[in-house]
Amino acid sequence: MKIDRRSFLSFVIGGAAGTALSPLPWKLTDDIAIWSQNWPWTPVPQKGEVSYLNSTCTLCPGGCGILVRKVGERVVKLEGMEGHPVNDGGLCTLGLAGTQLLYGPTRVKTPLKKVNGAWRKISWNAAIAEIVEKLSDLRSKGLPHTVACISGSDRGTVPELFNRFLTVYGSPNFMRTSSIQDSYELTLFLTQGVRAMAGFDVANADFILSFGSGLIEGWESPVYMFRAKSTLRENGGRMDQIEPRLSKTAAKSDKWIAISPGTEGALALGLAHVIIKEKLYNKKFVDTYTSGFEAHKKLVIDGYPPDIVSKITGVDTATITALAKDFARARKPLAICGRGKGYIPGSLQEFLAIHTLNALVGNINQTGGIWAVPEPDYISWPEVEMDKIASNGLQQERVDGAGSKAYPYARYLLGRLPEVINSSQDSPIQVLFVTTANPMYAMPDTQAVAKAFEKIPFVVSFSSFLDETAVNADLILPNHVFLERYEDVPAAHGFPKPIIGLARPVIEPLFNTQHSGDVIIQIANELGGPIADAFPWDSYDACLEETLADKWDALVEDGYWSDEVFSAADWSTAFETDSAKFEFTNEDIESLPRYNPLKAKGDEAHYPLVLIPYDSMRLASGHIGSPPFLIKSVEDYILTANDVLVEVNPATANEYGLKDGKYAFLRTPKGNARVKVRVFDGIMPGLVAIPRGLGHTAFGRFLAGKGVHYNALIGPVEDPASGHDAAWGIRAKLSKT
Amino acid sequence: MEKENSKKFGMVIDLDKCTGCGSCMVACMAENNIPFREDETDKLLSVSWMHVYRLTNVKPFPDTEECYLPRPCQHCEGHHGHSPCVSVCPATATDYDMDTGIVSQIYTRCFGCRYCMAACPYHVRQFNWWDPLWPDGMEKSLNPNVSVRMRGVVEKCSFCIHRYQLAKDQAYMEGRREIEEDEYQTACTQACPAGAITFGDLNNPKHAVYQMVKPDKKNGGKPKNPKAFRLLERLGTNAKVYYLSSREWVRRAGDNYLKTEGQAKHA
Amino acid sequence: MDSALIPEGVKRCPTWQFIIWIGVVGAVMMWGVFAILLVYIKGLNQTNMNNAYGFALWIWADLTVIALGGGAFFTGFLRYIIGKDELKHIINYAVLIGFICYSSALLILGFDVGQPLRAWFIFWHANVHSMLTEVAFCLTCYFGVLCIEYLPLALENRQIDKVPFFHHLSHNMHEIMAVFAATGAFLSFFHQGSLGGVPGVMFGRPFGFREGVLIWPWTFFLFTWSAAAGGPCFTILITKITEKAVRKKLVKDNVIELLAKISGWMLVGYMVAKIIDTWYWAAFTAPSKGFTLMDFYANNPGSVYGIWILIAEIGVCGVLPALILITDKGRKNRIALFLAVLLAVLGVCLNRWVMVLQVLAVPVLTFENWAQYLPSWQEIATTILPVAYGIIMISLSYRYLPVFPQERELNPIEAPVSQTQEQLPEPETPPAGAEPEPSPSGS
Ligand SMILES: Nc1nc2c(c(=O)[nH]1)N[C@H]1C(S)=C(S)[C@@H](COP(=O)(O)OP(=O)(O)OC[C@H]3O[C@@H](n4cnc5c(=O)[nH]c(N)nc54)[C@H](O)[C@@H]3O)O[C@H]1N2
Ligand SMILES: Nc1nc2c(c(=O)[nH]1)N[C@H]1C(S)=C(S)[C@@H](COP(=O)(O)OP(=O)(O)OC[C@H]3O[C@@H](n4cnc5c(=O)[nH]c(N)nc54)[C@H](O)[C@@H]3O)O[C@H]1N2
Ligand code: SF4
Ligand code: SF4
Ligand code: SF4
Ligand code: SF4
Ligand code: SF4
Hints:
- The structure holds 3 protein chains of 3 kinds.
- In chain B, 16% of the residues lie in helices and 16% in strands.
- By secondary structure, chain B is α+β, with helices and mostly antiparallel strands.
- In chain C, a hairpin with a 2-residue loop joins strand 1 (212-213) and strand 2 (216-217).
- Chains in contact: A-B, A-C, B-C.
- Residues 88-89, 91, 93-94, 110-116, 154 of chain B line the site of one iron/sulfur cluster (SF4).
């Protein structure tokens, strides 16, 4: 058949029409749409049996109870445990993002050894053998005291195992990371004669006077404080925040009193002046249960009248007087201190000045007051048998100087360590264990810390994550994360009652990790002799169960044990000082609360401004780096792309020609950084505020490189009264780029 | 239209209690499989079903005040279920459920025209500009009760409707027809450390939300509680999220007023 | 080379010149195609849209080309329904421009959505309450009508017309074109209106929201009206530009002036309605939601959204061209006429910009800020693509189809046209039967 144009065209048109009428195009269209609904690269979460397991969050010292939701063998969500005394169902951002730490890309998956600057996988046995060899060697040289350990906490079985190991091995150098815990413990010890933890009955107070404490920025046990603050509100209570910057806590307070940073202690003494002068103090308590009142009275009456205090603090006299009267007249007033989340121990005198306000109003160990909560005492292991090397080693003075003549009352002075190491020829520490701590990020003056760590020949990190310290260590012995291990959580910071939580494995460990407790037991066993004898347990889990004894069953069942009926000791028995009274001051210690200004580092001529840090619940600023959800939740006025925004008052911005959202150079005596400016009405003129928790160099692409690290811009300022770091800021200069 | 015993799920958020901590946001992310990217600082490109706004009284130092305002989907009822976003969707990919008052979103039906985004005055609706991808292993934490959304569709807060379905299934298995107030709570409500969020059935006098914003029949059904207000009430969105604040400037920031209009309704 | 395809009796540029021209414009088009591919493969993250600016350059381009394509339906309406017979000399071009505009609009919609592969859900899962559903249905139907309206012209190509089937098809289609014109006018009325309804029904967006009658907000009627007024201006504008480009007169002045006059009066009417609408909105609608007029315009950085927009839209690009077009002097003055249609077209563009984009920029929550937006290069490339495509379509149609019935008469190839001849009223060349359309067949 001859194909003419006509038949060709008919064929084409007919074919097209035929195809269109056939099911083919319609089926294809439908299939393509279905494909678009099921793209293979969009994950489909696997189904499975749902189960809930109770446990305890260990990501901060808050001690929240959690319910872990599992689907099959996957951990899908962490939720707050309802009815838990600390958090009753609530959870902070970090706890909620806990699954991202478990499954996140920054886990250390197997023991790692640094060889010529590069990480090499190593077996557990080889790693432990290496440590054992080092430790045996040092011991045989009579240098056991050159082994040290930095731990996030000194309470609970795991820190105690590390401490016990050091003791029986022969080193006094167990160090806890510093925080306001140090200052509060010292304050309670000096004024009340007790070794106790400070607990705050915020929920039952009716007037919280906070000297910069970030009650809703993660101070002490964050979720507990949030809840307590809401209860305070519900009960019609009041809260005033004394702080140079309109923090979230300040914003949520009834009154924000802006104060020159570092002068909080003076204000407290000024308030005491008014309270005493107007005879508004609790006479019953002061007359019967205190000593040293007259000296204190003389000090504040002579030295801290409102006009002088006003000059020091920048708070006007009317405010001082009114505040003092309101505070003293409240039924249950409570003064608290420790800036922000409380990472810096702070000035002991300031703590004493503020704590004595509570004494003046008689709100110590009372409902709605500050409580001395006994330290947990459930760990009663048999005394260790020490050999001669160990006893000799323990005779040595601690490297950080704690307990020495210069710092008689401090238990740990980790803050002094970098300085000590950097100023000695050879590092006084030969082997350093780091557990649940990230000192290379968390300590001020990052450069000096790095230099000191560089000098330590052998640093062993027990971190689950590739954090800054792990990255710079020589050996990493990765711990299970809290969802893969048992561990007791011996207290919740600031919680007014004794409570023990239990973290427990909700899934099999994902990687080749080991419980740090087991690792210490194994090291001890391999070292043999009295060291091995001090660790009679087969495993950490056995040790824990044995230690918790009669509490174990309740802990497994409920996830926590608490002493519900606990109440702090009665005034008649509460004070274990020489006078058996609350001591405003005493003869043998030079710790009369007074105000000796601790100056920020740097000279005013070069650095006209002052840099202060601030905290946010949306940024983890402790040893854990913020997981992706946290960074995602950070406000765009704090972080934009990789740039951090620093806050300045409009007047300051004007003075230095700084524009909102524009780049600027921030210089301090310790370092400099490129930042962006946020012009913010909620900050005093003359200050620059920067958030903590940014500027990580480790923790992977979701966190590293974002923003600037406050600790890289600041150095420690030693509190002459305690030896702890009391730096509240540093002088700074901010200039246009 | 609205059935006899239909429910009207809603929220009351106490701004006096809210601390701006962000737990509600993160709880929602974890519950609802919200994706994350390396840089999430451009909030207009970021997906977060709950967003906490920072409000200020725009006064200079030291009279500056701030307030934090968490904003889930307001599950607007509009007029007879014609919420701003639902009636505009050309493909019926979002719907107002007369039985629960929940504004749903069908990701597999949505074809990404974004008309609903334009129509929502609260910037609740967000678009998946990127493929949601999880670093290797992290997909293990995904919740199977909530589907992961593909690139190119709009998503928003669902009042955790899967929790309602689970609660109903549970009740059904136990031979009950109704669920209790505490059986269906949203993830954000549950997580809020300050107890600022209350969730429940606004039609049910036994529920806390009803008591908190009890309607005043004499005043057009507006809450009796003088601290209560809704966002952009005047637009007629008829939202089911109520806010409480004891501060006048905060309540006033909830809506637009002409300068000549003296004080907000609950002065 | 391609002379066999070129209509008889007209002169076209040499083939090589044409190929270079198409090549250059085609390259621009390919740039757009590349951008579209990027958008398809990587997604809408290739744009600078965001969750506040969910509608952006494309949707503006979409609404604008649809409005400007309105020349087709309105000219058809005047020609076939009202019986303005002179307009038959420009109707081809109006239809062609409409066809280009509408096919572009559909193309843009094809990549503007996040899930193009299921864009058909709009039909399958249609929501009768949605203005976009109405738009989608009417738009698609009307595009079909435009194809039918364009087809006879395409069939008039010298070679195609030789096939008797096509010759008769084309002939018969001309016969019933009035039916399609009426259908088109009806469909257009609705989808132009529905597009106006898009912002008008958004009661959460006080800048766009309008009260109205029944289910239609005033913007429904305003959009239809402005398309009817601005569309023909666009037809005139493109005709004038084409004449400049080919250096020939293609349509007689009386035809242009008639269309211009009608547009002018439409524009006057539209302006009266628009001013009343604006006043009512500013005086009643907005204040009832807590806004003053200046809340919508003032207080934003760089004044991108300043009150100048309203002044430009209503005054400079509305009232001014309307006044020019309704006066005899204005229409007769070539520069004034050109300026007037240009301004009217800009006015329509501006109106669509304001009604879809500024709506999104205005903060509604008191604690939000003005939204800012600058299109990405991918958006610009894809928006220029339809322009390039339109130029190619026009070039091809002009070269191979008898788009301008008056071209041969106005530009005789052999002898120059004499003055007297030009003044002759409507000399219909071939008396071939009762054909309503001038057939260039010559056969
Ligand atoms: N609103 C709404 N409507 C829907 C649907 C929806 O999702 N929403 N889904 C649709 C779909 S997919 C379906 S399949 C239908 C289902 O609709 P139906 O077929 O009406 O399903 P059931 O409600 O399960 O009712 C089945 C009946 O069979 C009875 N039955 C059970 N076992 C037996 C038996 O062995 N013998 C006999 N004779 N009776 C028995 C049960 O008691 C019950 O009364 O509903 C449709 N309708
Ligand atoms: N508890 C309980 N279980 C049942 C039954 C029951 O009565 N009770 N009935 C059984 C019966 S008979 C049936 S048929 C099944 C039905 O079970 P399913 O097939 O799971 O049906 P639906 O629950 O209606 O859920 C359909 C889902 O599809 C989504 N969807 C809607 N439109 C589209 C679309 O265009 N594309 C895509 N991809 N998704 C879309 C909806 O949002 C919804 O999430 O359930 C069975 N299981
Ligand atoms: S407050 Fe601390 S303990 Fe509680 S959830 Fe958050 S990180 Fe965990
Ligand atoms: S979790 Fe609660 S307190 Fe925190 S931001 Fe959300 S609503 Fe506010
Ligand atoms: S808040 Fe927005 S998305 Fe939610 S129902 Fe209302 S209009 Fe729709
Ligand atoms: S983006 Fe999706 S849900 Fe929104 S209107 Fe379009 S199709 Fe509907
Ligand atoms: S109700 Fe559920 S979906 Fe909505 S914001 Fe809260 S957690 Fe997210």
